[in-house]
Amino acid sequence: MRYQIVTLGCPKNTTDSDRIARTLEQSGHRAVPDREQADLVILNTCGFIDDARDESRQAAETLGAQRLPGQQVVVTGCWSQIEREQVIAIDGIDATFGIEAWREIAAHAGAVEAERDIPETSLGVGPSAYLKISDGCARPCTFCNIPGIKGRQFRSARPDALVREAQELVARGAREVVLVAQDSTAYGAEWGDANGLARLLERLAAESGADWLRLMYAYPGFVTPSLVEVMANTPQICNYLDIPLQHGSPSVLRRMKRPHNMDMVRGTLDRLRASMPDIAIRTTFIVGFPGESESEFNELRDFAAEAEFDRAGAFVYSPQNGTPAADMAGQIPDPIKEARHEQLMTLLADVSAQKNARQVGRRLPLLVESEPGQTTEDGDPIIAGRTYREAAEVDGLVLALGTAEPGEFRQVEIVDAMGHDLWAEVID
Ligand code: SF4
After folding, report:
1. Which helix H or strand E contains 386, and what residues bound it?
2. What is 2-108's CATH number?
């Protein structure tokens, strides 16, 4: 069968799509670039928030409506896991699957053999590829429906399998392997290893062949001294950490059932910066959580200004069915949420622009992402890529005049900061 996968949602979903593709390839099916050529179209959906579910529904309706004679359209992923009856009711949808259903999808496609941990494959990947190190989440965050979708326990993949998977990604063209999970710092917790992530990173650095390793989704309070030490002492691990903090007010964090000791959070940021003075720290915040008073919002604003995050995102709180926060008193009216979100985003963008401006003059390796053929308005060839300070898909880009293939490294000097993105000159 010829298949095409349409992926919505976060990087963890991208790794699931990759897994589906490899399982299908193992069974003799092959990917095609055009939907018209596909016998099987697989929509991998996101169900995290209302907007994501709406986007998933619209995509399913579109694919179902555009289904060609003899073509099959199936839906998988988080939204399909939680609202399966709604999905299958959509015209043109042939089957639905929940999460981690790669083998069922392969079976549906007409052929599945016994599971092989890491199938041989010739599928290419981009310069950056995601490695999902665990799935599910046992944390009690009151706003989050992920544990309800993905399961309320951590399920860490075995280190041997992850090393093999990372080696495969590198063999297929990845230069950077990005570790993702619902909470990456919980890696190995099920088998009682408090330093499981540090150990895994050491092995991946030694055995995967990746030029860069990058860590996303660390949980405050679990950035252990050994993790910081391994990050600081291992050249392949980018001096970059994504640590979603969600708020800066202890009372809001308590209602969120998140770590609320801000001294501990400040201590973690200080330790990271003391060990890696050039580290880029990324975080995310939620604005307008139930009961968020003006003074609690101000605490968040003050904290965000003080902590000087290199990269930060902010989201407007939206109630998720089945979560404790959805039933809390004191839901904040939309106009107030929006106004606070705008205020915070302006502040975060200013801080990030200032930090970017401090990069001018630095010489750094650039991992090229852009395809050849891109030009400025004047027709000069241009490359776009990322240094260790920018994670794929969420952070800005570094642009420079020149030509290079995706996956090549170039030594550049940062010459200008443009708010979100940076401008550089190729020096090598
Ligand atoms: S740690 Fe992340 S995935 Fe887990 S419940 Fe909290 S917000 Fe959700």
Report:
1. strand 382-386
2. 3.40.50.12160
Q: Within the chain, which residue ranges are assigned CATH 3.80.30.20?
A: 128-357
| Residue 178 DSSP SS3 | strand
- Label residue 312 exposed, middle or buried (CB < 10 Å: 0-12, 13-18, 19+): buried
- The predicted-structure confidence for 324-339, as pLDDT tens digits, reads as follows 999 999 999 999 999 9
Name the average pLDDT for the chain.
90
320 C-alpha vs ligand 1 centroid, how far in Å? Answer: 13
Q: Which whole number is the average pLDDT over 119-144?
A: 80
In CATH, 128-357 is 3.80.30.20: yes
Architecture of domain 363-426: Beta Barrel (2.40)
Q: How far is the CA of 183 from the centre of ligand 1 (A)?
A: 7
Classified as helix, coil or strand, 426 is: strand
pLDDT single digits (tens) 164-194: 999 999 998 999 999 999 999 999 998 888 8
Which ranges in the chain are annotated with CATH 2.40.50.140? 363-426
127 C-beta closer than 6 A to ligand 1: no
